[in-house]
Write a structure and sequence with these properties.
This protein folds into 2 domains: 35-161, no CATH class; 168-509, no CATH class. The protein is 24% helix and 21% strand. The chain has 10 helices and 18 strands. It has helices spanning 54-68, 88-91, 100-125, 134-148, 152-161, 170-175, 178-201, 243-253, 454-457, 489-493, and strands at 7-8, 16-17, 77-78, 81-85, 213-218, 256-260, 270-274, 277-281, 286-296, 299-313, 324-335, 341-347, 355-358, 391-395, 402-407, 414-422, 429-430, 436-437. The strands form 5 sheets. The protein has a 10-stranded mixed beta sheet. Strands 1-2 form a two-stranded antiparallel sheet. Helix 1 (54-68) crosses helix 4 (134-148). The longest helix is centred in the N-terminal third of the chain and has 26 residues, at 100-125. The two termini are 28 Å apart. Mean pLDDT is 87; it is low at 1-48.
Length: 510
Amino acid sequence: MSVQRQHCQGGNGRSCRRYAAAGLVAATLLLAAVCAAPRTDVGAVPAGAGALPCATVFEALDRAVVEAGVQGGDVRAVPGLPYLTADRFLASFAGAATDADAFDVWVEHLRRRNLQRRAAELARLGPRADGLSLARLDGCGRRRAAAELGDAAARRRLWAAVRVPDEYARVARIAGFYPFAVPFLRLGIGDYQRGVAADYARPLADLDGPARRIAWGPAAASGPVPALAAVPRDRLGIPQLDAAQWAALARAHAPVWWVEQGGPYDLPGAPTWAGARPTVDPARPDVYVHHDFTRFGAQVLPVLVYTIWFAERPPQTAHDPYAGALDGLVWRVVLDPQGRPLLYDSIHPCGCFHYWYPAQPLTRRDADSLWREPALVPQGQLPPNPAGGRWALRVASATHQLRRVLPADGIDGERRDYRLRPYAELTRLPDPRGGLRSLFGRDGLVAGSERGERWWLWVSGVPEPGAMRRRGRQATAFVGRQHFDDARVLEQVFEVPEAFRDPALPAQLR
């Protein structure tokens, strides 16, 4: 989300300008048999739930999760079909998978997405799941899909039902007179983006100061990576990468986080529950990764997303509206059909500060519209990385702003390792009561990470602007509507090159 904020030009004691805003891996998702210590029977699945008929087993699990209060903020099941879950990528195929084979493949993807969500729910319920297992849900989902989705009318009903709500509150935009607020929001956005551009225009040496820097790199060495062009694709054009292949890609493209050190708030760590509020354990410098897909022209492209967490964004003034508990950075790698990086982009876990970094020549779309937030490409196309090496992300102290992207083999500073962990672990963290709890609440937000800016930026319709939130819930614009995981988000910013208009794919899937 690009909006005026405090943007530190140095992060090392130099003065900061104040821009006031106007407005690894899929296999781990199936580890559902994690047991939590016994707690209370409130919210337990009815005794003998493992023997419940398939017609009611998903509904019983839904009730138990709500009554126990262990929702994790994930997208919900398709209405009326609790064995299917759609994210924005899968929802983009609604109405396109028209022939029987493509429709069946699409339904299977929706079922597998549902099982990812159910695995986390079963883990958080622990013993209260009372006999329910992922295998039981898998079998029931298969039988119900075969029985309920076998004719043309059922297909049309499913296409209509598969909708992922956006993360904008229409009521807030109406109450905040959004059309009248947009010009002021645009002024703030423009001011902020000019400040970022000025910082990126500075010579790299001018960023250096007395603060030491630590280069956090992946502990596991990268090995051979799959030849993406040789990976088979299903009827929807989705590459069929297995867990080992995803893990190899995750290791190969993991960045180096080159962090300026101004205090303990600049040490990365693993989120953990400490009482009613989460914090970060710097003794476990973990980086969380998940994989996904996006669409660009006729192509479905693999995506890797890395998230690093810090304990806080400390206040820079006595009344800093952007300070608060928990902070972080999200780094996304989009691969082209041959497996080469096409582009990178970054946000904070709040959805804020969306920066784009093309790795190949791409033409930006014309963004001259009052009702659309302009994309921020602060560094232009990245230069070739020698020998295909890693990228280092220069991260400012305290604000954790991304200030530059550089070849990792050309940086200095102390070197330390981080571990790559599956993002799904964030949805099943140990809590002080002996069970498992998601880092994210049922609204997808992280409790206690609220920012003062919410008191005026609510007019944009974004719930709790500045608060940390889970993947799939990250709106990235205050003007217009855009989400980090929009299936066609690349096309909102860049023209589709001719090479991505593959005529071999069916027209309805382009």
